[in-house]
Amino acid sequence: MRKYMILLVLLTSALTGFSKIELGTQFSDNMVLQQSAKIKIAGKTSTVGKVTVTTGWGKTYKATADKQGKFTVTIETPKAGGPYDIILDDGEQTVLKNILIGEVWLAVGQSNMVMPVKGFDAKQLVVNRQEMEQHASKLPPIRFLTLESPPSEEVSDLVLGKWVAADAQSVANFSAVAYEFARTLQEELKVPVGIIVAANSGTRIESWMSKGSLESIADKFLDLDRPFQKNSAAAMYNAMIAPLLGYQIKGFLWYQGEANRMSPGAYLKQFPAMLDDWRKSWGGKDLPFYTVEIAPFPYPTDKDKAYIAAFFRENQRKLARTLAQVGIVSTVDVGSSTTVHPPDKTKVGTRLALLALGQTYGFKERYQESVYKGYSTDGDKISITFSGNNRLQLLGDTLQDMEIAGEDQVFHPANATLQGDRLLVWSAAVAHPKSVRYCFKAYSVGNLFTEHGLPVPPFRTDNWSIIQKKTP
After folding, report:
1. How distant, in Å, are the alpha carbons of 189, 228, 233 from that of 218?
2. What is the mean pLDDT of residues 77-105?
3. Which residue has the higher pLDDT, 365 or 404?
4. Which residues on adjacent β-strands are paired with residue 63?
5. Which residue pairs from 399-402 have beta carbons closer than 8 angstroms and sit at least 24 positions apart in sequence?
6. For 372-377, which contacts have Cβ atoms below 8 Å and span 24 or more sequence positions?
7. 184 in Cβ contact with 349 (< 8 Å)
8. Is the distance from CB of 100 to CB of 32 less than 8 angstroms?
9. φ, ψ of residue 404 in degrees (nearest 5)
10. Where is the signal peptide (predicted)?
11. Element (H, E) at 435
12. Is-contact 207 229, C-beta < 8 A?
C-alpha cells in the first residue's frame, strides 16, 4: 500500500508542481511591457508539448516546448493601458498579474545610476528625496525592476530582481536618476512607465560589452588571465544584459564613464562597439541611447593629468554628436567637490527625460541646448558662437571657470561678457589669444545657461595635446 501511495504522490507532482512554467524575473507580476511592440517570452516547462499564452487584451498564442522543455513565444502588445493578466498554460496555469502596458527604458551604468532616492548613507544623500517620496505616494503608474544579479563569467539565462510599483516606501530604493526620468516622462506622456535598472558601482564599460563586441575592437582580452571580478570582460553583460534580450524596450539610459576616464581615446572605440552590439541584439538599429556627462569632481588620483576628465567628457560629446540617435545631457552645474556622487539627481533625470521627449517623442521644444559652435579672434579678444537660437544668460555676476591662452598654451583666468548671441572673452594677461576653455577641467561649476534653464556644456576652442602646461 505504501508503494502505491508513493507512486500516487510522484504522479501528482509530475502533473502539477513539476509542470509549473519557469520564466525569467523580468516576466512577473507588476511588470510593464512596451506598448505596440512584439515581446519575446522565453520560458521552461517540464512537459514536452504545447504552451498556450492568453493575454488580458484578448490575444492567444501557442508555442511548442523542445526536448529540454524550453519554449519561446512572441506576443504583440496593444497601446498603453492596463492592468492586465497574462495566463500561460502547459496543463497547469501560471498567471502573471497586474501588468501595465506603456513605455519601458533600460537604465545602465555605475554608481551614479545605482544611487537610490534614499542616498548611499548619511553623508551621501539625494536632494529633493522628500519630494520624490511625496510624488510616489500618489501611486503613479511607474514600475521598477532593479536587477541584483552578480557578475557572471558565462552568459546567464536569468536575472535576479522583481518588478516593484512606485509608492512612498518603495521609491526610496529606486535609482534616483531613473526615477526622475520616469516621473517626468510619465507626467508628460500620461502612460505607464517601466524602468529596468542594470547598474553596478565602479564598473568599466568593458564589463558591459559582450565578448563579441570586445573582440571586434581588440585582438585579445587584456584580463583573460586575471582573477574574475565585476570588471572582467563581459562580466555585467553576461549577468544583466544578455538575459534581457527579447524584452522589448523603447531605449537606453547610460550613466557610466568615471571608471574609464583615464582612457578617453579607447572609449571612442568601446562605446560605439557596445552600442552597435546592443542595438543589433534588440533588433532595433535606431533605438535611442541617452547618456550623461561624467560628474564634475576633483579626482584625487588625476593630479598629474588634470585635464583627463575634461578630455573624457569631450569624447562623450563627440560620440553623441557623431552617432545616430545618441544624445547627452550636461552635469557641469551639479557636480560636488566632496563626492563623485552629486546629490542633485533631479536635474540629471529631468534633463534625460526632456532629451527623450524632444528627440524620441516629438516634443521638439522641450530640450533646447546650446553648445559651442565656433570662434573668431578680434585683436585681444575671442568671440564665441553657439548652436541653436537660444538666448544665453549668466547665473551670477561673472562667468565661472573661463580661461584664455596665447601661443604659449598657458591659460589665465578670463573676463567674459554676453553680446547678443555671442560670448566675448579676454584677459589683460593675454595680448594675442589663441584659445578659450570653459569649465574644461576635472571639477568646475558652470553658470552659463540657456533661457530654458539648460547649462552650456564644457568646451574648448583648441585641439592642443592632452599634456598641458600649468597655469602660472
Report:
1. 42, 19, 12
2. 97
3. 404
4. 51
5. 399/423, 399/438, 399/447, 399/448, 400/439, 400/444, 400/445, 400/446, 400/447, 401/438, 401/439, 401/440, 401/441, 401/444, 401/445, 401/446, 402/436, 402/437, 402/438
6. 372/438, 372/456, 372/457, 372/459, 372/461, 375/436, 375/461, 377/433, 377/434
7. yes
8. yes
9. -140, 145
10. 1-19
11. strand 435-438
12. no
pTM over 0.85: yes
Are 371 and 384 contacting, i.e. CB atoms less than 8 angstroms apart?
no
Q: Which amino acid, 145?
A: L
Q: What is the tens place of the pLDDT at every residue in 178-216?
A: 999 999 999 999 999 999 999 999 999 999 999 999 999
Contact 161/24 with Cβ under 8 angstroms? no
Strand partners, 196: 106, 145
Q: How far apart are CA 350 and CA 180, in angstroms?
A: 6
Q: d(Cα 243, Cα 264) in Å, to the nearest integer?
A: 29
Residue with cell 544665453: 392
> If pLDDT is split at 50, 70 and 90, which confidence band does 14 have?
very low
* DSSP code, position 128: T
Going from the N-terminus, what domains does the chain have, and what CATH number goes with each? Answer: 22-99 (2.60.40), 102-361 (3.40.50.1110), 371-460 (no CATH)
**Cβ 165 vs Cβ 77: under 8 Å:** no
Euclidean distance between CA atoms 34 and 196, whole angstroms: 12
Q: Which residue has the cell 568593458?
A: 206
For cell 521638439, name the residue. Answer: 364
Provide CB contacts within 8 A for 191, sequence distance 6+: 35, 80, 102, 103, 141
